[in-house]
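Quick one, tokens below:
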């Protein structure tokens, strides 16, 4: 018994030892495995460089801190922007060596979904100077630096780095291998100077800063990088414009924090013509702020008397213009198929001796209710941060698919294949023949359909009014949208209110069946239009699916018509085909066949982007931007009537105008943002950027003359600008000739 206990104890001790050994071995292996793995590469590498291989006492000694950023990573400027942290530097030097603070070069401005930052990527060089006494201690100086930064890519990680450099004291040192790097860094650092005559005036949240032509020379663009935080609303792009006296102005938006606590001065960096890297300039300065009159930032023409005339959009004017736009909407081609239904309803109601007033009230109610629902949805979705504009319903392929099937059904109905009824007992021929084809409910439905299909086709006066509406409180915004609906419905309401007007309707007769079939033609054209719109939103497979769905719906409705007219029934096949039609719409709604949202140009038109606009303006070329959508009939009409005309295209070529197209057929937050910046909530929108930085908004209905006049005006101003810049030094000879008008440098002149 004792031996058994001894053996059991020994076994337990061996097991414990084995467990301990295994645990220790596992820890050892884990340590070795971690040691074998390569360390993650740093997002930022710090080093110190010098212009010369040594330091010269009582001379200009230039050095620089170099931050090498890994691909995709960036750090921040003195004023990081809406987010980020400023990069910090601290030196350790011999006691007799004095260093200046590193100077920040001009950063890049980035706008990421409304969050603006001023940052560096790639290689960023921060120059500084070292002052050496006449008789320094020792034979060399060892300079060390510690850098604290916030490095961001997909995530932001605080980091730090150190570097050092040892340089001998020499009377005549040689240029180092980094001499060019340091010299170029000095060029990219903004110059610190006082710009006399700067006038900064603000009104409400608008700020206008004017720089006199006698102080700085601006050819292409002027921008401003603030050094004070929470003064400007950085998400609103500054707008440069040239005044009549040649001065350069910038229109900016003030931040809410400034409006709560206004300050007397503003500090920042003026950047002219793209900055030093692009051949321009950058000057750091401060200037006083004062209250005064400031115009709206955009230059509007043809639609609302906003800028230029001194008037501004108010709720009352927006309501009036929306009402006028609703009236004009009845004349737009996109509305005609729906209005043909309304005409048919009134004629058939008049034939049966019905009172027309209920039709008018029901149609108006359908328009107003649907307009209110769409406007409320737009405001609510925008309130939670979604980038949506007027006409958002037709940006959804499943909505277009549903309308496509519905319009197929209406077309077949107008051809007399079946009747809209809610009961299956209408298979009896007599019942079918006597079933009402119209009524107040039908008029209400027509009002709903009119708003859904027609509202995205903005009319004159309407775009700016709706753009204003979506920025106002809900009550005022809804009032503007309802005014639009009332203008659209009013002609039909008046026709139904005054019975005497019904005498203008033709007398009933056999022609009515023919007329009904004729009304199927515009509805069939609407089917073709919706099919074309859908082809821009879904892939080829998705389009084939919806064609099969429309065919299934047509078969189901044909079978329904046979049953209604007592020619036989096939409920099984009808159910199967109806299910296939509904299934096609459901599959499209999943997004499986959505076409990727890409900017597509046409012919000489290139895809729009803000980068493309800036690149062309930097080259001194005007830019014309066509913001359009496949479902916008007004947009398509303007292309045929004006933009694609030979004389207009010739003027674009002669004026060296860059043509860009922004396709809003599918949802595009970038286009939605630019629309809202110019006070619009939908397309069409036509922008003409001038080389001087100003932008003109053309009317929503274009003619060749409107476009030609705008292009000629640019050419005229370009010639005047050349004469203005060259006339003070010599007589004007060659418009193509250029040269510095400033002997003191590229930015201080005359």
């Amino acid at each position: 018994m004792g031996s058994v206990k001894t053996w059991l104890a020994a076994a337990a001790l061996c097991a414990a030892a084995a467990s301990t050994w295994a645990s220790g071995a596992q820890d050892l292996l884990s340590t070795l495995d971690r040691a074998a793995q390569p360390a993650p590469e740093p997002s930022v590498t710090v080093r110190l460089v010098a212009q010369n291989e040594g330091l010269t006492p009582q001379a200009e000694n230039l050095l620089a801190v170099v931050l090498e950023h890994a691909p995709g990573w960036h750090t921040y400027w003195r004023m990081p922007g809406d987010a980020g942290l400023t990069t910090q530097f601290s030196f350790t030097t011999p006691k007799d060596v004095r260093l200046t603070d590193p100077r920040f070069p001009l950063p890049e401005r980035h706008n990421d979904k409304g969050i603006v930052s001023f940052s560096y990527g790639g290689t960023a060089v921060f120059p500084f100077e070292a002052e050496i006494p006449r008789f320094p201690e020792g034979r060399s100086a060892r300079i060390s630096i510690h850098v604290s930064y916030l490095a961001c890519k997909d995530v932001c990680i605080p980091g730090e780095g150190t570097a050092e450099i040892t340089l001998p004291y020499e009377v005549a040192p040689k240029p180092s291998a980094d001499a060019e790097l340091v010299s170029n860094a000095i060029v990219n650092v903004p110059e610190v100077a006082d710009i006399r005559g700067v006038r900064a005036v603000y009104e409400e949240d608008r700020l206008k800063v004017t720089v006199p032509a006698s102080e700085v020379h601006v050819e292409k663009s002027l921008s401003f990088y603030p050094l004070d935080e929470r003064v400007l609303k950085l998400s609103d792009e500054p707008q440069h414009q040239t005044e009549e006296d040649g001065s350069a102005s910038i229109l900016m938006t003030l931040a809410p924090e400034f409006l709560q606590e206004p300050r007397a001065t503003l500090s920042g960096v003026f950047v002219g013509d793209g900055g030093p890297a692009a051949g321009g300039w950058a000057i750091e300065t401060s200037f006083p702020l004062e209250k005064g009159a400031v115009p709206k930032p955009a230059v509007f023409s043809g639609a609302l008397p906003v800028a230029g005339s001194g008037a501004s959009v108010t709720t009352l004017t927006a309501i009036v213009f929306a009402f006028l736009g609703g009236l004009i909407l009845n004349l737009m081609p996109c509305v005609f198929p729906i209005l043909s239904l309304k005409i048919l309803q009134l004629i058939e109601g008049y034939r049966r001796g019905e009172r027309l007033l209920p039709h008018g009230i029901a149609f108006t109610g359908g328009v107003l209710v649907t307009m209110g629902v769409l406007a409320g949805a737009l405001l609510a979705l925008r309130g939670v941060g979604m980038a949506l504009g007027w006409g958002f319903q037709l940006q959804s392929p499943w909505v277009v698919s549903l309308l496509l099937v519905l319009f197929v059904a209406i077309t077949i109905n107008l051809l007399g294949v079946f009747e809209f009824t809610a009961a299956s007992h209408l298979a009896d021929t007599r019942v079918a023949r006597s079933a009402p084809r119209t009524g107040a409910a039908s008029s209400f439905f027509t009002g709903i359909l009119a708003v859904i299909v027609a509202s995205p086709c903005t009319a004159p006066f309407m775009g700016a009014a709706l753009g204003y509406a979506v920025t106002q409180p809900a009550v005022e915004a809804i009032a503007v949208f309802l005014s639009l609906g009332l203008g659209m419905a009013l002609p039909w309401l008046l026709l139904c209110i005054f019975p005497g007007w019904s005498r203008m309707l033709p007398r009933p007769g056999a022609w009515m069946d023919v007329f009904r079939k004729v009304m199927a033609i515009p509805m069939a054209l609407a089917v073709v239009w919706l099919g074309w719109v859908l082809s821009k939103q879904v892939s080829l497979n998705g389009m084939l699916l919806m064609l099969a769905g429309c065919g299934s719906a047509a078969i189901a409705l044909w079978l329904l018509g046979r049953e209604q007219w007592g020619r036989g029934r096939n409920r099984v096949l009808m159910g199967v085909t109806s299910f296939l039609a509904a299934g096609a719409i459901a599959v499209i709604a999943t997004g499986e066949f959505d076409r990727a949202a890409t900017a597509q140009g046409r012919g000489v038109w290139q895809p729009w982007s803000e980068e493309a606009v800036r690149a062309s303006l930097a080259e001194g070329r005007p830019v014309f931007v066509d913001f359009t959508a496949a479902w916008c009939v007004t947009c398509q009409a303007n292309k045929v009537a004006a933009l694609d005309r030979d004389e207009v295209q010739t003027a674009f070529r002669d004026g060296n105008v860059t043509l860009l197209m922004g396709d809003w057929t599918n949802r595009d937050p970038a286009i939605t943002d630019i629309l809202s910046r110019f006070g619009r909530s939908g397309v069409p929108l036509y922008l003409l950027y001038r080389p001087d930085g100003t932008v003109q908004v053309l009317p929503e209905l274009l003619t060749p003359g409107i476009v030609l006049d705008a292009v000629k005006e640019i050419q005229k101003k370009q010639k005047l600008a050349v004469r203005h810049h060259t006339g003070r030094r010599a007589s004007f000879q060659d418009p193509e000739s250029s040269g510095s008008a400033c002997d003191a440098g590229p930015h201080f002149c005359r």
